[in-house]
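It is worth pausing here to work through a concrete case rather than discussing structure prediction in the abstract. The textbook approach is simple: state the sequence, then state the predicted structure, then interpret. We follow exactly that order.
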Amino acid sequence: MRSTLGLARRLLVSASIALLASVGIMPPATAAPCGPRDEMVRQLSAVMRQEHRAIGLTQSGAFAELFVSAENSRWTLIVSSPGGFSCIIATGHDWVEWREPDPEV
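Step two, the predicted structure:
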């Protein structure tokens, strides 16, 4: 019974990874998308010229953080654990700040 549950769990994790990779959410296997948050933020700032723009708390207790470059509109979304470990979730270009127009009074 225990080995059946372990096998089922491994299959579920494998299927989830395959699904995420197929829709383009996960980076290629050759990329190194995770590391210490301090180093990742330093690289995003120094190399990519991206600034911290937003942060939100996930249901699991991690932080989703958005970094955007004002120079070239490139952006990076990372998820950071409270312990200081981060992973890149998505990257892109053509970031545009959106604000709803103020309603007329």
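Step three, interpretation. The two ends are 66 Å apart (CA to CA). The chain has two helices and five strands.
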